[in-house]
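stage 2 :: seqdesign
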């Protein structure tokens, strides 16, 4: 546990800390203060999982992601599965069905060829399951001691259907917040194998490609307002990003959030909040109230949305802030995380 990230690192950092890669406030500051000013150009300030671009009359979604998960293999998946599903899901959150992926491997000198082959096989199988083709790639090797076996970068492109416009700025008070199933499963699965912890019940990662589930939702109505896959920083980070970008408040009914017993037990033992634990096969949707029942039914009819639940709504009060109503009738603020409770989960 000595490698865990401090939950409240100092904000005035002159050097990179693990929290800068956690998808929380430190990550946002790094993007806003370093990367966005350096790159310039429109669109970089968008808080979406993929860029929506016009090219030759078509609307494309384009996304890239890097994967440094430790360990390489874990219950329910591997870095190969994550490399495909993570990028496919980023594209799906813009409404696009992924078509093509690039894949870059960074290998540490001395890693076993058998290990690399297992990762590559898992990546290929995940791509076939997701219906996406890996069409280009690259391989680099770094000296022993300068990596951690295998790192992967994937980029993906897909087409956004006509009439689909998914972005947080479209959220309005009254929108219903739906989550596609149990939260916190991936983070606890990684924690259990990395730290050698046992929670009484085996926990497997929820790693999965969400393109088909999103397609089923859009078949009900293309007028979904925003989708987000709550990976680093968990559900709390995703809701805070949407609230900040839309200028609305979000109220979550704490007892409505689906937290499986093993995750709840692990978090209770370790003093963690399931709302901040990472997911890799779940999404959160802000849906106009008039379509919420039909969208929820479509999600529950899909294997990856069978546990979908309404957990809250967007409100006019406390704009930019997420509040949870507790089982005791009180309220608590669900802050944006600074770093991450468990680094390197994807």
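stage 2 :: out
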């Amino acid at each position: 546990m000595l490698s865990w990230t401090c939950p409240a690192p100092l904000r005035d950092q002159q050097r990179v800390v693990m929290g800068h890669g956690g998808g929380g406030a430190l990550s946002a500051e790094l993007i806003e203060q370093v990367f966005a000013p350096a790159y310039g150009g429109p669109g970089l300030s968008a808080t979406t999982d993929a860029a929506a671009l016009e090219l030759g009359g078509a609307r494309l979604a384009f996304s890239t992601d890097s994967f440094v998960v430790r360990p390489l293999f874990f219950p329910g998946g591997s870095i190969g599965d994550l490399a495909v599903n993570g990028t496919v899901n980023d594209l799906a959150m813009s409404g696009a069905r992924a078509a093509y992926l690039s894949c870059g491997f960074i290998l540490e000198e001395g890693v076993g060829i058998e290990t690399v082959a297992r990762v590559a096989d898992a990546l290929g199988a995940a791509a076939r399951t997701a219906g996406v083709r890996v069409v280009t790639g690259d391989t680099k090797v770094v000296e022993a001691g300068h990596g951690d076996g295998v790192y992967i970068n994937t980029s993906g492109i897909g087409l956004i259907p006509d009439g689909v416009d998914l972005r947080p700025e479209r959220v309005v008070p009254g929108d219903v917040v739906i989550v596609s199933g149990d939260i916190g499963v991936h983070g606890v699965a990684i924690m259990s194998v990395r730290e050698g912890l046992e929670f009484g019940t085996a926990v497997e990662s929820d790693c999965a490609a969400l393109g088909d589930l999103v397609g089923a939702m859009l078949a009900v109505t293309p007028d979904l307002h925003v989708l987000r896959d709550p990976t680093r920083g968990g559900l709390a980070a995703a809701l805070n990003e949407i609230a900040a970008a839309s200028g609305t408040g979000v109220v979550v009914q704490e007892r409505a959030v689906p937290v499986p017993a093993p995750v709840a037990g692990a978090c209770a033992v370790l003093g963690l909040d399931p709302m901040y634990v990472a997911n890799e096969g779940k999404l959160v949707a802000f849906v106009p109230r008039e379509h919420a029942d039909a969208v929820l039914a479509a999600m529950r009819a899909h294997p990856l949305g069978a546990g979908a639940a309404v957990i809250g709504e967007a409100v006019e009060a406390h704009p930019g802030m997420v509040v949870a109503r507790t089982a005791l009738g009180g309220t608590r603020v669900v802050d944006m995380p600074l770093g991450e409770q468990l680094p390197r989960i994807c």
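stage 3 :: structure notes
- The longest strand covers residues 97-108.
- Residues 85 and 209 are 5 Å apart (CA to CA).
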